[in-house]
Amino acid sequence: MVQNTVTAEKRLKKLVEAGQEANRFNWAKEWKAQGKKVIGLVDTYIPEEIIYAAGALPWHIFGTWRQNVPLASVYRPPNTCRYCAHVLESFMSGQLDFLDGAVGSDWDDDRRVLWFQWTHLKMMSFRYQLHVPLKDSDLARIQFTANVTRLKKGLEKFCGVEITDQSLADAIGVYNKMRSLLTRVYEMRKRDVPPLTGAETLGLTTAAMVMPKDEYIKELEALLPYLETRKPVITSPHPRLLVSADRLDNPAYIALIEDAGALVAMDDMDTGSRYFWNEVPVNGDPIEALSRRYLSKLACPRMTFWDRQVSQVKEWVKEWKIDGIVNFTMSYSYPRFFGMPYFRDQMETAGIPFLTIQREYYLGSVGQLRTRVEAFAETLAEDF
Amino acid sequence: MNFLEAEVAKYERRVKRIKENPDPTKLKANLLLYEMWLSHRKKMLKQFNEGVPFAYLSGGSVYNTLFRAMGFHTIHLPTTADRVGSGAAKYFDIARQRGYPDNTCDRIQVYLGLTMSGELPRPSFVFYYGGECLPLTYGGRWVAEEFKVPSYFLDYPEEDSGYEGFQHVLKQYRELISYCESEVPGVKFDEAKLGEYQRKTDMNHHLHQEIYELKKRVPCPISGKDALRMPSMELCDEPQFGEYYKLFRDEMREKAEKGIGALPEEKARVMWVVSAPFYADPFSFLESRGVAVPIYDAGVGGGERREYVPPDDEKKYGRRLSPLEYLASQTAEGAEGRTPGSKSERILKNCRELHLDGVIYFMLSGCMPEIGCGRIVAENLERELGIPTLLIDGYCLDSAKYNQTDFESKLDAFVSVLLARKGVPA
Fold first, then answer.
1. In terms of Cα–Cα distance, which of B129, B88, B374, B98 is closest to A80?
2. What is the pTM assigned to this prediction?
3. Peptide bond into A286 cis (omega under 30)
4. Which residue has the higher pLDDT, A180 or A331?
5. What is the CB neighbour count within 10 angstroms for residue B352?
6. Which DSSP category does A123 fall into?
7. Which region, left, alpha or beta, applies to residue B168 given φ > 0 means left and ψ of -120 to 50 means alpha?
8. Does B162 contact A at CB distance below 8 Å?
9. Between vectors from CA B384 to CA B288 and to CA B371, what angle results, nearest 5°?
10. Do A139 and B168 touch (CB under 8 A)?
11. Do B3-190 and B193-304+339-422 come out as alike in CATH topology?
12. So what's the pLDDT on residue A97?
């Protein structure tokens, strides 16, 4: 437990900033220096407990936050997913040379292509493409379990270890612990004045995606009692917003909203709630349990059961007393674009104010973004 | 005039024009193709006026056969969109006003607009799948939502999942059939009918192979426009469906034997890949510069995508498969051919066998699986065969974004490169 406020703030700051571009590699490089492997991941549908159980560090791949991606542009025209372009740039510039391998997925067509580009460019000695069904049915779960089993075998071969049921159960235990701690943090966000800003919270969740889990758990657990009483600097506690986005890892986006006079009190992001929500059942076959959790976890626009995503967001709006939703679509990332009319219609029907803003992966067009968010916040503020 | 009325008028016009003034450089089989479309569209128009519902298929032309074997009338949405021609703008507007992305594949935008326009027969069922691209998947998902009708999503298996992938698809087909039979009145699966379609397709397969072989001939016996043709499986119930390929093959063979080419002088030959601007004619421009286009990767005689297994084969699974099992095996094997690696290999094979001098890779805007592979294919072709690739951006249907001068100047520059590499005077 952290006793001193200054010390606690210092530790919190370090944790919140662990996912920043300048810091996110540190943990992985330290890990690597110990002679252990680091395996990258491109989305939150990949059961990373298996990588943990293989003794490697599961490390979520984010791209450079720089605006220009000249190396990646050779393979990725400007009209392709910007997250993938920035990730490829990081690979090609040597920023991710420390990765021993990576597990790709078919989250969308572009991420599938990203994997092919790694292959073509002969990047890393271990590359695995995991197929994640777009639906959640009995047959899809059976298939996904088979796919995850193949991934496990591939990792065993690459890491030269046997991934036993016990090691998987241990990994699940660690991850569930992380999930329960973050759930407690999110519960605190229900308060009228939460202990963390939205930007800080995003820093906290992205830290979990790049730090060794045991280390992360130790830090967060130590900080939780302090967070219970923390009084953060919040520009305005109203209106309370929920941000919905994919691969949004830069807290500056959230800070921009909060600087415009709103509070981001909840999120529907794969770098936020969707990363850790829902624990893995500890009974039964661990691979089946993992497959079930990952396929059935909180819906994102990528999945075809849009109704579940909408129901979940509506529930959050109620529980976290949300006044409006900011929906960030990322340029040329289609899943969110296609689901958007449905999402918007459903929110309108439910009387939930809804603002869609198209963004780049890097933080760009700041003035324009700020103006739109300010206008939205002002509209909502009229109700207070 | 609605879409179907416009279609009928278009094909009547084309049939009349060919009958009165045939173009000797184009295949006579085109007349048969247009006659089949005319007959098909007339039937559809009648059904539309009578309020007959259809199954909407978002991708996978082969699913016309599965759904017709269940007793559905079918509309294959992407290829329907391909036919709107100069009328696309209206459908873009409808889709965009509804909030759909204007930067995705234009075929999907048009088909969304078309379904919302009320100009197509209403759906009783929507089928969509994960076999091609996500816009097709989400397009189907959205149409099902818009019309509030039962729908089914088919999950494609992981590449290299073998027998397990086959079983996964087969179980889904059984689930789909059972769902359709319980949800849509009058639906009953007739597996023997599916078998009949497969026998027809098998016969056509052999003709495709012969056509592919004939494409090796220099000069090329067909024009680029004819190489681009690919009759939709929507026409599979037309009595002359098989006849078309026979006629296509016979004409090519006759021209090849006589040494007649589509061009007066063939200086170079290229492959056209992905798609093309359907509102323009880049092939005539290429031909005017002495460049033949014998092959389009998805057209008639486009070459084998994977090892072909006929419906009566007993070797692969140790017994002859039922028609539904055969469809599942084809689907599972189809999942193997979706990687840029396999695409690249196929294009390399085509280039080698057809003695091609280059590739024109149409970077269809919004088609992520294809545009993401363009550079990879180009590098592989240069490395393995030393031949150049033109990566050219474009849209299939959005003619408002097309600039003929710009497009043709890029083709022109590429032709100059091709000829210079061959040492042939321009």
1. B374
2. 0.95
3. no
4. A180
5. 12
6. -
7. alpha
8. no
9. 65
10. yes
11. yes
12. 96
Cα-Cα-Cα-Cα dihedral of B49, B50, B55, B60, to 10°? Answer: -40
Geometric angle at alpha carbon A355, from A198 and A208, rounded to 5° = 30
B140, B59 Cβ separation under 8 angstroms: yes
Q: Looking at the complex, does the CB of residue B190 fall below 8 Å from at least one CB of chain A?
A: no
Residue tagged 């990566």 (tokens): B391
Cβ distance of A109 and B133 shorter than 8 Å: yes
Buried b (16+ CB within 10 A) or exposed e, B121-160: bebbbbbbbbbbbbbbbbbbbbbbbbbebbbbbbbbbbbe
Q: Give A-chain residues touching B135 at CB under 8 angstroms.
A: 334, 338
Is the Cβ–Cβ distance between B360 and B390 less than 8 Å? yes
Check if B164 contacts A (Cβ < 8 Å).
yes
Dihedrals φ, ψ of B318, to 5°? 80, 0
**Residue A245: strand pairing partners:** A269
Asked if A116 lies within 8 A of B341 by C-beta distance, the reply is yes
Q: Residue A133 is encoded by which pair of tokens?
A: 């069904």
Nearest CA-CA partner of B194 in B177, B214, B217, B179: B177
Q: Count of A–B CB contacts within 8 Å?
A: 118
B311 has a pLDDT exceeding 70: yes
- Using CA atoms, how far apart are residues B253 and B234, in angstroms rounded to an integer? 27
Please name the member of B161, B339, B379 whose beta carbon is closest to the beta carbon of A116: B339
- Model confidence pLDDT, tens digit, residues A326-371: 999 998 999 999 999 999 999 999 999 999 999 999 999 899 999 9
Tokens of A155: 């990792």
Q: A113, B130: Cβ pair inside 8 Å? A: no
**Binary contact (B363, A129; C-beta < 8 A):** no
Task: Return the bridge partners of A38, or none.
Answer: A57
The domain segmentation of chain B, as residue ranges, is 3-190, 193-304+339-422
Any CB–CB contact under 8 A between B339 and chain A?
A: yes
3-class SS shares of chain B: helix, strand, coil, % to 5 = 55, 10, 35
Nearest CA in chain B to A306: B141
Per the structure block, which two tokens stand in for B312? 């009566």
CATH 2.60.40.150 assigned to B193-304+339-422:
no
User: Are A337 and B363 an interchain contact pair (Cβ–Cβ within 8 Å)?
Assistant: no
**pLDDT by residue (tens digit) across A258-283?**
999 999 999 999 999 999 999 999 98
Instruction: In whole angstroms, give the CA distance from residue A320 to residue A190.
Output: 5
A339 chain-B contacts, CB cut-off 8 A: 138
CATH number assigned to the domain covering B3-190: 3.40.50.11890
